[in-house]
Amino acid sequence: MIITLDGPSGSGKSTLAKRLAKVMNFTHIDSGSIYRAIAYYFITNGVTSDNYEKSLEDINISYSKNGVMLDGKRLKSEIRTVDVTELSSKIATYPFVRNYVDNIIKEIAANTSVVVDGRDIGSSVLPNADFKFYIEADIQKRAARRILQIKRKNPESDIVVSEVREDLKIRDDRDKNREYSPLCIPENAIIIDTTNDSVKESLQKITRIIRGLD
Predict the structure, then answer these.
(1) pTM of the predicted model, to two decimals?
(2) For residues 179 and 11, what is the distance between their CA atoms, to the nearest angstrom?
(3) Cβ–Cβ under 8 Å, residues 114 and 2
(4) What is d(CA 172, CA 183) in angstroms, rounded to the nearest whole number?
(5) Which parts of the chain register pLDDT below 50?
(6) 187 CB neighbour count, 10 Å cutoff
(7) Are 120 and 185 in contact (CB under 8 A)?
(8) What is the 3-state secondary structure of the chain?
(9) β pairing state of 114-118 and 73-74
């Protein structure tokens, strides 16, 4: 079975996808972490933009239930830095990078049941998924969630909601208006608004739909 969760940054899709995969005993694929792994590789190896496409031939990325692996090493906090986040968002606009990531996802989904989250999974990468969800939330709520994430990692951070909200707007615009596989609501997707719901409440809505209870 293939289940996809798409939506903008901060909507809660990754958290929901991770918990849903656990409930279903499926493999969770965080497509964003694969883009982050590529960005991390580019940064740590000093790869310049004119060599991005050629360098993809040298990257050894794999994915398991434990997450994304680079050269056999599990990547964790090192792909959650500001620099990696910014670059991953930029390279996600390159068709050759998206094709690279898409092929990894398709190969995994062809061999096991998966829950995949991203921005174009149900619309482009796995359009024939058994269940497609589009996760959304208002930008104020999304910004507040992102602040909490930042504060957990760096309690001394003085970042404010207005700054994060502006960054989210920029990212939304980039995702929705890129030429290749833009963020959109996939055909036949079920919209889940998480603005006023807890993770548990949103998860219950999704699982009830999958199990045919709603």
Answers:
(1) 0.89
(2) 22
(3) yes
(4) 8
(5) none
(6) 9
(7) no
(8) CEEEEECCCCCCHHHHHHHHHHHHCCEEEEHHHHHHHHHHHHHHCCCCHHHHHHHHHHCCEEEECCEEEECCEECCHHHCCHHHHHHHHHHCCCHHHHHHHHHHHHHHHCCCCEEEEECCHHHHHCCCCCEEEEEECCHHHHHHHHHHHHHHHCCCCCCCHHHHHHHHHHHHHHHHHCCCCCCCCCCCCEEEECCCCCHHHHHHHHHHHHCCCC
(9) unpaired
The 10s digit of each residue's pLDDT in 70-104 is 998 999 989 988 899 889 989 988 999 999 999 99
Cα separation, 201 vs 100, in Å, equals: 35
pLDDT value of residue 213: 83
Which residues have a Cβ under 8 Å from the Cβ of 24 and sit 6 or more positions away?
Answer: 1, 3, 113, 115, 210
d(CA 76, CA 23): 22
Bridge partners (DSSP) listed for residue 191: 134
Identity of the amino acid at 132: K
Contact in structure between 184 and 99 (CB atoms under 8 Å): no
What confidence score (pLDDT) does residue 121 get?
96
Residues 12, 132: Cα–Cα separation, whole Å: 15
Residue 97: phi and psi, rounded to 5, are -75, -45
